[in-house]
């Protein structure tokens, strides 16, 4: 369980987040949605201890994120940001191997190679594993980053816009793979997602932010309501059930 | 100096664009599809080592005129200075690139060379030209080194107190400090008498050829100590290449590692500057070459490679200048000239930092 209490973040006098409090339940996929500048990334990076909150506390599986040693936390929680560019030239396998760093401290053992192989297979990257990242398409690169995070083998996985740069096909594949990670590997996955319909189709729960506050939180059915969505996104939305799935229409 | 054999290796590897060999850990599973044959990083290191050894032997033993012992002793001292310069500049630049996540900016941008220049200028202004000659000695080198590391520590402490929390601000402040120091130096130099200025200017370029042998043991001890610390952290350095966020995600205390590494860089650069004078682009050239030649991102290969390439460059360059062009004193000037051009070329080609 991820718990956050009275978390705020200010830049100079500008408050960008909070105060927000809440919990993210164990297991399954929780999506953070909301308009631009709602504070989604800020909240996610604070949960992942990449950003210090101005005030408030975050704990992951009972460990206080601020006071727990970073290398202890790295075996519990992994986070992938939206922008990743590395100065060194790495192959896919090198990159995924870095996911084992919390355990191997850089010296990869047989156990680590098994996990690396699993993560590579899980994201169907076998044929690319010897390639350099700069030789890959955006979608393949994105999968390699996610493979690194999976090789880290943490109970909690935080992903900032994993569908960034992915086309329709690869978005669906990525979400299916994340769904499998949650269902088969029992991981708790928190992700930021822009397309509300993707969030509705693959998540267990949705947390909606707006103006730095939590506007709504609940199951997919609870959030996928005309009035709730219209308020969150400040855009008239109607929810239809297409093939049994709630689908928001907001294009006109 | 660009004709040394390492640089031809560099061209060979960049054009082949090989897989860079997956390091010492061969992937299990199906092997990546066959590529053009490349050398493993270990073999490449061995090849460059051979070049260094041969070049050093030639430098020490060939074309001896006059007393054998006198010449050997003089050349051995020079070789020692080159080893120190290559180690400090090469290692410091690679470390700096790793922790700042860029491969363009060099430690000298943080204002070390200008601080050295300013200190030397101030000494001449305050005490007069002869003082420089009289105060040569180990205590002076140690004092200068400590002063520069202290300066760096204060600056980093202040900048990393969370006030900025941004590396680019730090770099910008470094540039501004450097400019301020050199402006003050230039101003003070205008006030000097021609004789004093002449005495000063001999100190403001690398002095590979007239290093005092007494400094070398001190420098060697510092190099070995830093080398041990860095070697123990080589895997952490690999992870630091991924940037602050990814390194933190992997469990690295980024702030701590950054501070330690910047301190080491400060120590190395200040010692090198105090010993052989300012060299702005040498480290940059050596590190840039090392990234291309090594064929691996791993610091256990990149760091020794940077050191060896630096040494090869210096020894071969000095040898050629001494015996072909009879211009032994010009080595650092030429390295700075070529290095500056390479720097500008890469800066313009990348278009950004």
Automatic annotation (TrEMBL), chain A:
UniProt record, GO biological process: iron ion transport
One GO MF annotation is:
ATP binding
Keyword check for Signal = no
- Where would you find this protein in the cell? Cell membrane
* Membrane topology designation: Peripheral membrane protein
Which residues does the UniProt record annotate as the domain ABC transporter?
2-236
Q: Which UniProt keywords apply?
A: ATP-binding, Cell membrane, Ion transport, Iron, Iron transport, Membrane, Nucleotide-binding, Transport
Q: Tell me which domain of life the UniProt entry assigns to the organism this sequence originates from.
A: Bacteria
Known InterPro entries for this protein? AAA+_ATPase, ABC_transporter-like_ATP-bd, P-loop_NTPase, Siderophore_ABC-ATPase
The record's listing under Pfam families reads:
ABC_tran (PF00005)
What PANTHER family does this protein map onto?
IRON(3+)-HYDROXAMATE IMPORT ATP-BINDING PROTEIN FHUC, PETROBACTIN IMPORT ATP-BINDING PROTEIN YCLP
Q: What is this protein called?
A: ATP-binding cassette domain-containing protein
Automatic annotation (TrEMBL), chain B:
Q: State the GO CC annotations.
A: plasma membrane
TM ranges are 45-64, 76-97, 109-129, 141-160, 166-192, 213-231, 260-289, 301-321, 327-348
Q: Where is the signal peptide?
A: none
* Comp. bias (Polar residues): 1-17
Q: Which domain of life is it from?
A: Bacteria
Provide the residue span(s) of the region labelled Disordered.
1-35
Q: Which InterPro entries match?
A: ABC_BtuC-like (IPR037294), ABC_transptr_permease_BtuC (IPR000522)
Q: Topology relative to the membrane, per the entry?
A: Multi-pass membrane protein
Protein family according to the UniProt entry: Belongs to the binding-protein-dependent transport system permease family. FecCD subfamily.
Please report the name of this protein according to its UniProt entry: Iron chelate uptake ABC transporter family permease subunit
Question: From what organism does this protein derive?
Answer: Oerskovia douganii
């Amino acid at each position: 369980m991820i718990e956050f209490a009275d978390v705020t973040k200010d830049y100079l006098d500008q408050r960008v987040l909070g105060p927000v409090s809440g919990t993210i339940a164990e297991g399954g996929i929780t999506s953070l949605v909301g308009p631009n500048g709602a504070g989604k990334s800020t909240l996610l990076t604070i949960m992942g201890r990449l950003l210090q909150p101005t005030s408030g506390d975050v704990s992951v599986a009972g460990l206080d994120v601020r006071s727990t040693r970073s290398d202890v936390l790295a075996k519990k929680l992994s986070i992938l940001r939206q922008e990743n560019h590395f100065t060194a030239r790495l192959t896919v396998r090198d990159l995924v191997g870095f996911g084992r760093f919390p355990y191997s401290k850089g010296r990869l053992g047989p156990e680590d190679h098994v996990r690396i192989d699993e993560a590579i297979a899980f994201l169907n990257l076998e044929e690319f594993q010897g390639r350099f990242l700069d030789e890959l398409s955006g979608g393949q690169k994105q999968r390699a980053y996610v493979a690194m995070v999976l090789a880290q083998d943490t109970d909690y996985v935080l992903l900032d816009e994993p569908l960034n740069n992915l086309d329709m096909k690869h978005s669906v594949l990525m979400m299916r793979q994340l769904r499998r990670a949650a269902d088969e590997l029992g991981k708790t996955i928190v992700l930021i997602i822009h397309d509300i319909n993707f969030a509705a189709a693959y998540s267990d729960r949705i947390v909606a932010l707006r103006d730095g506050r939590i506007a709504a939180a609940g199951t997919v059915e609870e959030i996928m309501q005309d009035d709730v969505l219209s308020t969150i996104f400040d855009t008239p939305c109607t929810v239809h059930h297409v093939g049994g799935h709630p689908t928001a229409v907001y294009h006109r | 100096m660009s004709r040394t054999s390492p640089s031809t290796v560099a061209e060979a590897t960049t054009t082949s664009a090989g897989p860079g060999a997956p390091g010492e850990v061969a992937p299990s599973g199906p092997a990546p599809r066959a590529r053009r044959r490349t050398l493993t990083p270990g073999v490449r290191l061995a090849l460059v080592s051979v070049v260094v050894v041969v070049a050093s032997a030639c430098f020490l033993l060939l074309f001896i005129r006059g007393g054998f012992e006198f010449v050997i002793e003089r050349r051995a001292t020079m070789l020692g200075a080159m080893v120190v310069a290559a180690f400090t500049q090469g290692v410091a630049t690679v470390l700096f690139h790793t922790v700042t996540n860029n491969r363009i900016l060099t430690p000298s941008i943080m204002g070390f060379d200008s601080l050295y220049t300013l200190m030397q200028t101030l000494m001449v202004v305050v005490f007069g030209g002869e003082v420089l000659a009289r105060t040569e000695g180990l205590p002076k080198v140690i004092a200068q080194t400590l002063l520069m590391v202290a300066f760096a520590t204060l600056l980093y402490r202040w900048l990393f107190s969370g006030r900025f929390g941004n590396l680019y601000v730090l770099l910008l402040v470094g540039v501004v400090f450097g400019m301020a120091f050199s402006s003050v130096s230039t101003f003070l130099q205008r006030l000097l008498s021609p004789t004093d200025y002449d005495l000063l200017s001999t100190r403001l370029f690398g002095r590979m050829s007239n290093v005092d042998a007494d400094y070398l043991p001190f420098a060697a001890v510092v190099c070995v100590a830093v080398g041990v610390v860095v070697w123990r952290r080589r895997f952490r350095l690999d992870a630091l290449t991924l940037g602050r966020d990814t390194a933190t995600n992997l469990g690295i205390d980024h702030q701590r590692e950054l501070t330690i590494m910047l301190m080491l860089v400060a120590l190395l650069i200040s010692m090198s500057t105090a010993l052989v004078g300012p060299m702005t682009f040498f480290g940059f050239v050596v590190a840039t070459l090392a990234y291309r030649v090594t064929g691996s991102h791993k610091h256990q290969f990149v760091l020794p490679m940077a050191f060896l390439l630096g040494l090869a460059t210096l020894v071969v360059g000095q040898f050629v200048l001494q015996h072909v062009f009879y211009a032994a004193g010009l080595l650092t000037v030429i390295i700075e000239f070529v290095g500056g051009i390479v720097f500008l070329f890469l800066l313009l080609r990348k278009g950004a930092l």
